[in-house]
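hey so i finally got around to running the thing on that chain from the lab meeting. sorry it took forever, my laptop kept dying and i had to restart like 3 times. anyway pasting the input first so we r on the same page abt which one it is
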Amino acid sequence: MTFRGRHLLGIEPLHPMEITTILDLADEYVGLSRSRSKHSDVLKGLTQINMFFENSTRTQASFELAGKRLGADVMSMQMQASSIKKGETLIDTALTLNAMHPDLLVVRHPHSGAVDLLAQKVNCAVLNAGDGRHEHPTQALLDALTIRRAKGRLHRLNIAICGDIAHSRVARSNILLLGKMENRIRLVGPPTLIPSGAADWGVEVYGDMKEGLSGCDVVMMLRLQKERMDGGFIPSEREYYHRFGLDAAKLAVAKEDAIVMHPGPMNRGVEIDGTIADDINRSVIQEQVEMGVAVRMAAMDLLAQNLRAEAA
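ok and heres what got predicted. didnt touch it at all, straight out
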């Protein structure tokens, strides 16, 4: 297997073979997580610190669970109540943590590039759990694993990413990963939520859901990120759902075996109809949550292997 990185900061620097390496190992960890004894000792003796400067449920819980299942000593810090609030800079926080000699640092931060800055100041491996509008690499990897397990492959698929593209680090990481794996990617949403220049990213851009979803294998819905919006990006939630919310009529134009995805948390009746979200024949949203733990286990295992090889 091949994975060369010291950190996992984004999808952009990864080679397709490295992506496949992570997914193959994650597939093995799905089996471990489904077994009666869910524990391994591959991270035994290592310390994992989770630093979440933004609120998170799924990502933080899955990183914590992943570390514990692999035998790491896991500490989750409540950054909202940390010394950052007392005026400490991000770099000073990094230097303080570095002095504690952690092995794995998992960071979510509201500013793009903050996680990369931290990685330059510490001696341990850093995993990006989402930074601003930049990237969310483990989300894209878990989405890729979900697609590969559902479709039997991760190439030459028609994949529609729909909704709030402009504010979504999930969309950015998925566009990068799915593009590297030779898929046809469509971005679907209102012009106000499609970044300028998106047509130059090697994707197709649609302003109509039925046109964009026609013949698709995968329909990936995104959350409306109101906390990142500082203006009138949509007329109203009701109008948004009418035009861009996923319902049975819009999904009908996709392939009969098309799967439906959403990174969560979902706004039912805004981005997606609740019936579609809960349809076990089409929706793989719960599978995405399960794959998240396995992917994060795989990523931390591979980074730890590189740390040990570097120290040897």
